[in-house]
Please model this.
Amino acid sequence: MQIVAENRIGRRILRHIRALAHPRFVGTAGELRAQNYIRAVLRNEMYHVMDHPFTSSFFPLDVLPRIIIASVIIVLILGYFALDAAPAFSVESGVFVLLTLLLSTRWGRVTEWMYRFRKFGTLRSKNIVAIHPAQNSRMNIVFTAHYDSKSQTWSGPQRTAMFGALAILSVVSALALIAAAFLPIPGEIALVALVPAALVFLALGATATTNASPGAYDNASGVAVLLELAHSFAGEHPNANLVFIATGAAEAGLCGAVAMMQNESFREQFPPEETIVINLDGIGSRGPLRVTDRYGIPPVKTGPLLSNLAVEIAGRFGIDVRRNWLPAGASLDHVPFAGHGYQAITLSTSGWNLAYRAVHTARDVADNLDLSSLEQCYAVCQEIVESIPYIERPVD
Model:
């Protein structure tokens, strides 16, 4: 297929982005406005549109990360002051910190249970679902994209850098505590890493979440590509059942994706062994197409067959493509699906430019986006739909 047809498809996608690029944090009038627009577009294409309302907790977003980071810092401080009197405790402190950091990168049923812990506040939102059934096919292709947005004190890249620095400093401090308990090295090495780690923690702890970002790149772009894909297949007879899900409250901790996985009827209708999931998040920043197919430490693969297919298609189209790894687990909507055994990846495009740097700020506007990047991601998704039915089944 032709990737670029005088930017015609890109302009259609951009129109959706402009319609959606307004502040729309969960629970606001902007969220409702976005929901109404998505429904209207899908219904105009003659899809049967269903709302999946859900209630979730703010605990995984607002409380749990602070508890984990505070625990790490406090234990490191206690371990440092115990070096002379109780070196065994210092070793235990270092081991505790290392295990805590590793476990915090995993995704599991315990993580999902925390979304039911509503003592610290609840949120209500909706997933918007449209299904295009195929004839005589058991293969299901699910496209997801979150439609909410948020702004924060620190931009997305800044927060990523701060969390990375905090993790590295904490690991260095923990290893220094363990080493100082056995070797004749000064314990102050742990303190050198611990002090800046504590300062970073304080800066992150002071982060406020508000509703000021238009969220064009994050993630009106993903929803716009999803809507254009729905338009392109509306009048066709696909060789696989197509499911389009605009997820809610992703910026509050992937709540919409978790709610889909807690929906037994969805898992029964679209079982993991017959279903692949392609999440669209952050498209339109000029740069490589990124296929996120691993998360956590050590890395957990989320969709080897699907990832290989996406990379092969992008290469065939002459698109610069990179495989992407998320050291943290709870950051993209495909991760909860992967945790239930689905072949799942996230497609995005990113380079160090204004579109990427403006994430979670008021500067995340449609004018930052690149039409060719939007079209390339759309083209890869279309080709996956054409290709996947001829692959017998996803591999583990």
